Amino acid sequence: MTSTIDGRIDAAEFRQVLSHYASGITVIAGIADDAPVGFTCQSFYSVSTTPPLVSFSVMKTSTSWPQIRDTGRFSVNVLSGHQHDVSNTFARSGTDKWAGIEWHRSPQENPIIEGTVMWLDCEVVAEHEAGDHTIVIGHVRAMSSPDWHHGSPLLYFRGSYRHLDDLTG
To answer: In Å, what is the CA distance from 118 to each residue of 20, 97, 143, 148, 169?
Structure first.
């Protein structure tokens, strides 16, 4: 058991402890200057069913989020188990993240990545500052139909990509 004398938590140790919580991997995306923009995000969750609200957290240093925020809307693409490369690509800065990515526009004109488990089309309704991150709340305006849903999600656990099959038994 780790204890602190002065109440301070070491950032690296905090990150390591939180790695024991499995999370899904998403790509938050939008259109800026008529071009797709996006970033990998693992801090995504549902907030409310009535009205349908979701949330994610993004680093304040993100260069992609300000471009998406300015449009007032975004998509959430939940990556499938075989999309490790998509996650890695969208986690990088300064590269053409969309090169080789098959996608189309959602009803709200946001990028929907082919092969994902599911997607949501959202409107930004609130942002809250939280340490080195911004918490974004989105109102879901459209979503994938049941015939879109296929495969299982890509997970992140203990510093590695995982699949649901990895965690059974």
So the answer is: 24, 20, 8, 7, 26
pTM for the predicted model, two decimal places: 0.90
Q: Tell me the three state secondary structure of residue 146.
A: coil
Pairing of strands 26-32, 35-41: antiparallel
The CA distances from residue 55 to 45, 87, 102, 160, in Å, are 6, 19, 25, 23
Res 35 pLDDT > 80: yes
Residue 56, beta-bridge partner list: 44, 136
Show the beta-strand stretches assigned E in the chain: 23-24, 26-32, 35-41, 44-49, 52-59, 73-78, 103-105, 111-113, 118-130, 133-143, 155-157, 160-162
Domains, the chain, in order of start with CATH, read 12-159 (2.30.110.10)
